[in-house]
Amino acid sequence: MALPDLIDRLEQDAAREARAIAARADDEVRGVEAATTREVDEVVAAHLARARVARAAAHQQALARARRGARAAELEARHALIARVLDRARALVPEAGASDDGRRALPAFFREARSFTAGLRVRVRCAPAAAAVLAPIVAADDGAELVADPEVGPGLVVEALDGSVTVDGTVAGRLERLAPDLAVSIAAEVDRGD
Questions:
Q1: Global pTM value
Q2: Cα dihedral 95→101→106→107 (10° resolution)
Q3: Which of 56, 81, 85, 120 is the most exposed place for a label (fewest CB within 10 A)?
Q4: 127-133 — which CB contacts under 8 Å span 24+ positions?
């Protein structure tokens, strides 16, 4: 084989080998690129998943805060409503005591108070306007004496003379004792109205 043929053949072999090396290098580059793309996708997916979880947790916390705030506002409004109703009832106490119903309730108030002071000598204090209604009832009870007291609001106060028991049978006192139950009833009524 002649030298030019040998050189030509070596050049062709070298070119084939160079193409084969270039093809293998291209395959390796594509493999590295594919692996890198997969790793980047996995890293991005993991980051997005963590970010989604963090956003979901933050959203749940914000939602819980909003719910607590709304519940607090609702309770505050409910308490304000109950307070307004009870304040209005307190404002009506003098009117209730001066009414015919208020005067008719005095004997029942006395009997109720006397049930807590049975066997004790008592002083019954009431407003001067109520004394006329209570006088015959108290006079019939030999353990009781009546005192007209302008400081006593509508209703009456029964006090054991030995100081052991005092029963506040005033309309205002009864209202204050009933206030917690009334608050529950008012709240239930508000709930039924929703």
A1: 0.59
A2: 180
A3: 56
A4: 127/97, 127/152, 127/153, 127/154, 129/98, 130/97, 130/103, 130/106, 130/154, 130/155, 130/156, 133/103, 133/106, 133/107
Phi–psi pair at 120, nearest 5 degrees: -105, 150
Per DSSP, the residues of 51-80 read HHHHHHHHHHHHHHHHHHHHHHHHHHHHHH
CA pseudo-torsion sign 40, 46, 50, 53: positive
Element (H, E) at 168: strand 166-168
Helix (H, G, I), strand (E, B) or coil at 167: strand
Tens digit of each residue's pLDDT, the chain (194 residues): 677 777 778 788 788 888 888 888 888 888 888 888 888 888 888 888 888 888 888 889 998 999 998 888 888 888 888 888 888 888 888 887 778 888 888 999 999 999 999 889 999 999 998 999 999 999 999 889 999 999 998 999 999 999 999 999 988 898 888 888 888 888 888 777 65
- d(CA 70, CA 3) in angstroms, rounded, equals 97
